[in-house]
Design goal:
This protein has about 260 residues and is α+β, with helices and mostly antiparallel strands. About 65% of the residues lie in helices and about 15% in strands. The protein folds into 2 domains: about 120 residues, no CATH class; about 80 residues. Strand 4 and strand 5 form a beta hairpin. The longest helix has about 100 residues.
Length: about 260
């Protein structure tokens, strides 16, 4: 019985303890827990901020690396452009020097062309008189061209050289052409035959009259019709490409200074 009373008193004491108000130390524990939770929340917020800053830093690093690549490419491109610019500057300098040389050459070439045209005119006057009007007209055009300001020196010089080439070709070709000539005191239509520059002949229509240019006497001389009629007719057909080339028996003046 006494033991039971003792047990009841112990239970009453425990109940009294459980129902009694908490001491001041328990309140501090709650405050510590609350502050811990607050610090945990602040730490989480700080970690999120750190994560955002890290992501932003990573993005900035990627952007920086991309910009560096672009800059490297631009430096290579600018280097190539600079080489091109340097080459163009050097070329411009060469062009300036060439232009200065062109001006000098042009001042020297104009008198040369005048002498060439005068020499050509004199040569035609002393040469065998074939296609005389055509050749003299060509020289007159060249003389008129020299006075034109709308034609540059290069084109003028090309035309002069072209005239010389035409004259040079006459020496290695055979040609037949029609013209008029005073024969036996009358103006007649004749066929001219030019054999290079060594022979110039004529024959009237029908072959009644034939002749040759005598360069030593600077005049036309009549040839025996019965002796040269057939040869001249054959030569005219050859020059017109009507028959195949063949040997011709025609009189040729001996070179000056050579005895016949």
């Amino acid at each position: 019985m006494a033991h039971r009373r003792t047990a009841l008193r112990a239970l009453a004491c425990c109940a009294a303890l459980l129902l009694a108000p908490l001491p001041a130390g328990a309140a501090k524990v709650d405050q510590v827990v609350t502050e811990g939770e607050q610090r945990t929340a602040e730490g989480a917020a700080s970690q999120q901020k750190i994560d955002r800053l890290s992501d932003a830093a990573d993005k900035l690093l990627r952007d920086y690396r991309q910009v560096v690549k672009v800059i490297d490419g631009l430096q290579v491109y600018n280097g190539l452009l600079q080489k091109q610019v340097d080459g163009q500057v050097a070329e411009m300098e060469q062009l300036r020097e060439s232009m200065a040389q062109v001006a000098l050459i042009e001042r020297q070439i104009v008198p040369l062309m005048v002498r060439m045209i005068d020499g050509l005119d004199e040569f035609i006057g002393l040469d065998v008189p074939f296609l005389l009007d055509e050749r003299q007209t060509r020289v007159a055009r060249l003389q008129a061209m020299l006075e034109r300001a709308d034609v540059d020196a290069a084109e003028k010089f090309r035309k002069v050289l072209e005239a010389y080439e035409i004259e040079n070709d006459y020496g290695r070709t055979i040609e037949a052409y029609k013209g008029s000539l005073e024969v036996a005191g009358k103006a007649r239509e004749v066929d001219f035959l030019r054999v290079g520059r060594v022979g110039l002949y004529y024959q009237t229509v029908g072959g009644a009259h034939s002749g040759a240019w005598d360069q030593a006497q600077h005049q036309w001389v009549e040839l025996p019709a019965d002796q040269y009629k057939s040869a001249l007719a054959a030569g005219l057909r050859i020059a017109r490409k009507q028959v195949a080339p063949d040997l011709l028996t025609l009189p040729v003046a001996a070179p000056q200074g050579v005895q016949r």
